[in-house]
Amino acid sequence: MLNSIRPKNRVIFAYLLIPVAIYVFAVFVPLVTAGYYSFFEWQGGPNKSFIGIENFKTLMNDEIFWMSFQHNIFLVIACIIGQIGLALLFVLMINSKLVKFKGIHRTFGFFPSTIAAVAIGFIWTMVFDYRRGILNWILEFIGQEEHTKVWLNEPDLVMLLIAIPLIWQFIGYFMIILLSAISSIDKSIIEVSEIDGANAVQRAIYIIIPLIKNTLLVCVTLCVAGNMKAFDHIFVMTTGGPGNASMVMALYGYKVSFMQQNMGYGSAISIGIFVLSLLVIGAFQLVTKVLSSDKEVV
Amino acid sequence: MKTIQTKLLAIFLNVTLGIFSLSCIFPLVWMFYSSLKQKRDFNANIMGLPENPSFENYVRILTNADYHIFESVLNSVRTTVLSIVLIIFLGFIVGYILSRVRFRGNRILYVMFLMGLLIPIHSLLVPIYVVFRATNLGNKWFTLIIPYVAFGLPIAIFLVEGYVKSIPVSLEEAANIDGSSFTSTLFRIILPICKPILVTIGIIQTFATWNEFSFALVLIRDQRLQTVPLAMTQFTGQFSSDYTKIMAAMLITMSPIIVFYFVFSKQIIKGMVAGAIKG
Amino acid sequence: MKKKLVSVFMVVFLITALFAGCGQTDDTTDTSTEDTSTDDTSTQDTSTEDTSTDDTSTEENGAYTGELSLMHFSTSEESEGNGGSDGFRTMVTEWDEANPDITLVQNVLANDDYKTQIATLAAADDLPDVFLLQGMNTRAWAEQGLVMDMTEIINSSPYNDQYDHSFFFPFTYNDSIYGLPVLTGGTTTVVVYDQAIWQEAGYDTFPETWDEVMEADAFFEEQGMDTIAFGNSGKWQANSCFLSAVGNRFTGNDWFYSMVDKSGAAFTDQEFVDSLQFTQDIFTSGVFNPDFNAINNEDARELFIAGDASAFIGGNWDVSYIQSVLEGTEMYDTTKFAVIPQPAGADATTRTHAIGMGFAVAINSKLADNPEKLAAAIDLAYKVTGPDFAEYVGANYALGGLTKVDNVDLSNFDQFTVDFYNYSYVDNKACEIYDSYISSAVWDVLNTDLQMMLNGDIDPQTVAENAQASYEANY
C-alpha cells in the first residue's frame, strides 16, 4: 500500500482496539489460563499442585493421544478432498449453463450446515443402524445381505463412516464461500475466454481456480482448523468408540477433563492440540506456497 | 453428436446435484413427519411415514410453561443478532487492515487471530468460566455476546482478508487521489464491494451462534436467560429420550432461522452473487 | 414496496427482541420461585405432610431469609418416566412453599449436562449451595474440601434411625460422610424376560445358569429372535448393568470393599480377571443381539418390547419405561424378572444383584460460614431424603428411598410392580454398584477397554492391567 494512502498509526490503533480487546479477553486470556493449568496436577477444586512439565511428558508417551492425532489427520485429508473438493465441483457445476434450479441447489445444499451437530449425528447414526438403517436396507435390497454389519462397531471402518456425515454437512458451507468468491470474478474475463474457445473444464482449471486462490487457501485453513478440533459428531455417534477406534483429540481432552476429572492433564492435551494444529496449518500453507507460483501481495 | 453429448452431460449434472440437494433437505422433512409421531411408533418404524399423524407433541411443548420456549427464542434472537452485527462490522475492519496495511505487529495479530480457530472449545470451558466469574460478567443478558463475537471474529477476518486481496489496489489509490480519507474509502468504496463475503459471513455465523451450546451451558445459570440449545436440555431425561418430542422442539426453535433463511434466500443469493468488480 | 414492508417488519421484530432482553433484570433473586410453582404437583398435601416436620423446620428457617441455590437433574421430562425424580421434584416444591421467606434458586439440567456443569463448577470452586454428588466423585471432592462433612448432620437428623445406613457407603471417605443419599435405590442389574416365550423354550422361569441360557439360544435363533437384548453404546452399561453383578459372583463382596478401601485387592486379581473372561466369552457367543455396542439401553429395551428379543438386561430405569409402555398389553402379564444367571466357575456368591443409590444431596463446604443458611440447606436435605419422600415414592411407585418406611402397602399395586419390588428388595441379595465408588478416571479407562473386549479385540488380562494402572495413578 502506498504511503500516501496508509492511515496514521493512531487511526489503525483506534480501529483495532475494540475487536482485539474483546478477542484477548474472551479467547486469549482463557487460553493462557488453560496453558497455566497444564503445569499442574489438578483434579478440580481449589487445590492444585505444581508439577512442571510432567503432564507434557505424559502426553508425549500417551498412545491414545497420538492415535487420536492420526484420526484427526485422516479427517483433515478426507475433508479437504470431500468438503472443499466436492464443494468446488458442485459450485462449478451449478454455474454451468446446463443446470437448472440453481437457486434450489444453493439453498438446499447449505441447509445441513445450519442444523446442530447433535441432529446430524443422530440422523447418520440411524443411517448406519444395524436393524433399521438405510445402508443395510440398501444392501439387502441389492442382494448383498452378507455384507450387512453393525457399522459403527467396526473399529477399522468407523473413522471412514464418521467422515461421511462430516463431509456431507459442510459441503454446502464451503459452497457458499466459494460461490461468493467466484461471483466476484469479472464476467468479462470469462466471456473472453469463451470466445477464445476454452471449454468449461479449461475455464475452470486455468481461469477460475487461480482467481479464487486466496479464498481457497482460506477454506483449506478453515477446514484443517475445524477438523483438528472435531468433536460434536463423534461425540454423538460413537463417543470415540468402539473402545478408542474413533477417538479424536478434542474428545480425548474432554474425556480426560470432565469424565476422568483430570483437569491439569486435560489442559495439557488442549495445548497439545493447539500446537499440533499450528504445525499442521503451517505445513499446509508452506506446501501451497511452494506449489503455487504467485507471490503474496501485502 | 455434440448435442447428445451435451444432453447426457446435462442429465448427469442435474441428477447428481439433484440427489445431493435432496439428501440435504431430507433430514428436515424426516424430522417434521417424525415429530408427528408418538415415541412408540417412531421407535417401531424410524423411516416410515406416520400412521396417525398428530400435532400432539407440539401442543404439549408449547403449552408447558416449564419449557419457556418463547423466552429462550427471544434470548437467542437477541444474542445472535447483536453478535452477528458486531462480527461483521469488526471483522470487516480488522480483515481489511490486516490485508492491506503494513504495520508492526501485522503478522503477530494475524497469528493471534488464527489461534482462535484452533482451540477446541471444551478446553476453554473452565478457564472462561473462571475469567467471567472474576470479572462478574457471567450470567447476564449480554454475557454470551462476548465469546461469540470473540470466536466468530477469526473466520470473518480471514474471509475478508482473502477477499480483499483480490481487489486491485488501484481502487483505493484512485479514491485517495480524489481526496477521500481512509475511513471514507473504507466504508464508502470497499465495504459495498465486500458485500458478498460479508453476507456469507453473516449467514455462516448466524447459524453457528444460534446453535452454540457449550459456552451457554457454562456461562448462563439463570433459566430465564437460557438460549435455545440450552432450553432444549429440558427434553432429555437421564435415561429416556423422547426423540419425537425432541424433534418437535428442535423444529419449533429452528423455525425462526429456517423461515428467515428460506424467505430471504433469494436476496441472500443475490447479495452474494452480485458485486462483480469492474477492472 | 414489498421489500420495504419486509425490512420494516424485520426492524420492528429486532427491536422488540432487543428490548425484551434488556427488560430482564440480571438480578437473580426473583427468578425461579415461579419456575417451581408452575409444576402441577399436589399442593394440597403440603399442609398435612408438613406437620411431621413442622417443629424442626419453622424454628430453624425462621432465622434465614435470602437465597439458596440448588442444582439437580430431575427435569420434568425425566420425572415422567422416573418415580424417584418425580418424588424429588415434589419434595422440593413442598419445601419451597413451606419456606416462603427463602428464595430457592434452582438450576435443573439433563443428567449428562448436569455432570459437565457440576464438574466445571467444582473445578472453578464455585459449586451451588446444595447439589447432587455422585459416589465416584466423593473422595476427590472431599479431599479438595469442596463438600461439607455431613456426619454430624446425619447423626442429628430426626430420621436417623430410619435411614438404611448401607446406602451411605459410597459417600463415605475417611470415616466421614459427605452426602445424604437421594432419589431411589434401585437395582442396576435385572433380567427382564417374557415368561410365555421362555416356557416354549422349555423353561418355566429364567434359567439359573448361563449354560442353560446357551441351550435356549438355539431355540430362539430358529424363531428369528435374539435371546437377550443389551445396549452398551454409552460404555457404562456393561459395567453398571452386567459386570457389577457378574464380578461379584466371582470375587465376593470383600474383594470390592478392599478395592474401595485400598487394602490390598487389585483389578488383576485372578477372580476379577475370570469375571472379565467370562464376560468376554458370553458377549462373543452370540447370545446377545449383534449390535450391542452400537445401540444404547433405550434401543435395546425396545427390542424386548417389540418381541425381537426374549429377554433384556438393564436397570430399574429401564423397568420403569417398560412398565409404562407394556401396561395393559398381554405381554405385561407375562413379563417377569430374574437375577443374572450364575456363570460357570463362579462360586463366591449367588443370586446377587447390584443395588444402591448413585447420588447424594451434598452441601457446599462454604456454607459453614453462614449458620442460618446452612440450617436451611440441612432442612432441605432432610426433606428430600426423609420419610415424606419415601412415603411418596412408596405409595405411588413402590420404590424405596433412603428412609425406610414400614408397611409399604403393596396391595394397591399390580403384579408387575409387586414382582419388581420383591425382586429388588426381598428375594435376592444385594451387592455394590461398581461405579458408585472409586473414581471416574478408573471407570472411564475400564469402560472403554470393556467395549473393545466385548468385541474380542483386547484380552481380559490387558483390560485388568490397564484398569489397575489407572487405579494406582488416580485413586
Task: Describe the 3D structure.
The complex is a heterotrimer of chains A (298), B (279) and C (475). Chain A has helices at 9-37, 54-60, 63-95, 102-110, 117-127, 134-141, 158-183, 187-195, 200-211, 213-228, 232-237, 249-259, 263-291, and strands at 40-42, 48-50. Chain A is mainly α and 298 residues long. Chain A has a single domain (21-291), classed as MetI-like fold (Orthogonal Bundle). Chain A has a two-stranded antiparallel ribbon. In chain A, helix 8 packs antiparallel against helix 9 (200-211), helix 10 runs antiparallel to helix 13 (263-291) and helix 12 packs antiparallel against helix 13. Chain A is flat, with a radius of gyration of 23 Å. The relative contact order of chain A is 0.13. The mean pLDDT of chain A is 84. The longest helix of chain B is centred in the N-terminal third of the chain and has 34 residues, at 2-35. Chain B has a domain at 68-235: Orthogonal Bundle (MetI-like fold), CATH 1.10.3720. By secondary structure, chain B is an all-alpha fold. Chain B is built from 13 helices and no strands. In chain B, 72% of the residues lie in helices and 0% in strands. Chain C is of the alpha/beta class and 475 residues long. Chain C folds into two domains: 65-185 and 357-406, Periplasmic binding protein-like II (D-Maltodextrin-Binding Protein, domain 2, 3-Layer(aba) Sandwich), CATH 3.40.190; 187-354 and 427-474, 3-Layer(aba) Sandwich (D-Maltodextrin-Binding Protein, domain 2), CATH 3.40.190. In chain C, the strands form four sheets. In chain C, strands 2-1-3-13-6 form a five-stranded mixed beta sheet. In chain C, a hairpin with a 2-residue loop joins strand 4 (172-173) and strand 5. Chain C is globular. Chains A and B meet through helix 1, helix 3, helix 4, helix 5 and helix 7 of A and helix 1, helix 4, helix 5, helix 6 and helix 7 of B.
